[in-house]
Amino acid sequence: MPELTNVVMALADPTRREIFERLAERPRSVGALALDMPISRPAVSQHLRVLKEAGLVTDHAEGTRRVYQIDPAGLGVVRQWLDRFWDRSLAAFQAEADKEEEQNP
Amino acid sequence: MNLTITPAPVRKSLRVKAPPARAFEIFTAGMSRWWLKTHTISKTKSPIKEITIEPRQGGRWFERGEDGSECDWGHVLAWEPPARLLLAWQINGQWQFDPNLVTEVEIRFSPDASGTKVELEHRYLERLGDTAETMRTAFDRGWMALLESFAANAT
Fold first, then answer.
1. Contact state of A4 with B27 under an 8 Å Cβ cutoff
2. Less Cβ around it within 10 Å: N or C end of chain A?
3. What does pTM read for this prediction?
């Protein structure tokens, strides 16, 4: 079954949960989030990076700002899982294809 | 909410020492030999004994468990050895076969100096929308329920 440790870790932090909940209301820039919260802008950026790596939010440029929103399809977790699934599966395929070629060059 | 943003396809690229025709054969006819045995969708959770891709367009892609049970994974959309294989992956985010779901897995095999370059793309992940619903439901139930659900799925 999916390994969702990153998601659990990302959401285990109350500040990140709050950021995520604010983004669930509507997309916001880093600056807008920092204005609303008692933490620095770099700290907000750091939390956003963790959320993004967990596949929970996406970002895009609007002029000079980066605007964040939750993954609208809610599929970040599934996509991340499939990404790792194919990594592992293809590594096994590669080992098999290489092994055979070494035995029967 | 802007629903036009879709998840990027999962893309992988690797090199194997076998030539394309052989790599294609190992990927398809030899899938049982390399597919991770724990990656079963069988409801009985029986370990995988055999994975079959029927070698033709429209052919089935399915697993057979050690207990004899069969589970569909999808079907062949394009069978073009040795260069290209296009599979319909019909497994949803709950890791179950869904005949109404079609995501595509395209695998290309091209010759290179040392063997074969293999490129895989798993696309149309937005069609896994049922899972998005599940996720939203989980969010609605609150964070604790969500975390418990993840913890249960992660084991």
1. no
2. C
3. 0.65
